[in-house]
Structures are given as C-alpha cells and as structure tokens.
C-alpha cells in the first residue's frame, strides 16, 4: 500500500529559499517508494541541501548535495530514527536564493479485481451475468 507522504509530495515546489529554510510532509512512506528533489539556483551562486526526515534537519535521509543538484531517497519501509516525514533542508545558499522541486514515485495500490484470488470470482460473476441475460432473451 502506498504511503501518504508519497502521494502528497509531488505538489511540493518552492522558490526563493535561503539557508535554514525547510519544508516537507509528515506521515508514512512505504517500502519501494522514492522521491527525487532537484535544487536549482535562483539568485544564489551556489549552496547545499539535504533530504531530511524532520523540520530541524537532524535526520538526514539523503545528501548533502551541491546546488544545483539532485538527490534521491528510496524508502525501505519505516522512516529511520526520529523521522516524522520527508522534506528538504537548505544548508547554504551563497549570495541569494535557491529553488526546490520534488518528484515522487509511489507504490501503486493493487486493484483487488485482478488479484490471484479474486480473478476466478470475477470470471464466475461474469459467467452468471451472461447466463441471466441469455435466459431473459429466451
């Protein structure tokens, strides 16, 4: 089942960030889900950022990386340490601002109608519906 953080993070895009800025989403992240954060230069000449698990930037999940740059975090299930979600932390933005965009890759939720146990049941229901239609036409 997909984690709730993964489904909310694709909408995260911030501009005009300076050192110490942080943002993200609290909640769970399912095994196999990943997110990629790309930091680009606004008016800054460089900087560094990290993917973190808390607003204070204590739990680093990926990085640090130079700006411009890209970091990726792939979840193995439960978030590590005292992480409460996933977000970014701008460590440095030299001489100006930086921008962050996020792209997440969520684990798809399985469709019950196509599982190995429900597929024969679906076939049986389809057959029953066909028989009822044939009987009504006769």
**Quick one: how many beta strands?**
8
**Radius of gyration based on Cα positions:** 23 Å
Write down the domain tally: 2
**Helical region count?**
2
Q: Average pLDDT across residues?
A: 86
Shape: elongated
Q: Give the ordered list of helices and strands.
A: HEEEEEEEEH
- The name of the CATH architecture of the largest domain is Sandwich
Low-confidence stretches: none
Q: From the 3D structure, determine the CATH topology of the largest domain.
A: Jelly Rolls
Main β sheet profile: 4 strands, antiparallel
Helix content: 10-25%
How widely separated are the two ends? 46 Å
Query: What's the CATH class label of the largest domain?
Result: Mainly Beta
The secondary-structure class comes to alpha+beta
**Strand coverage percent:** 35-45%
Q: What order do the strands of the largest sheet run in, or round the barrel if closed?
A: 1-8-3-6
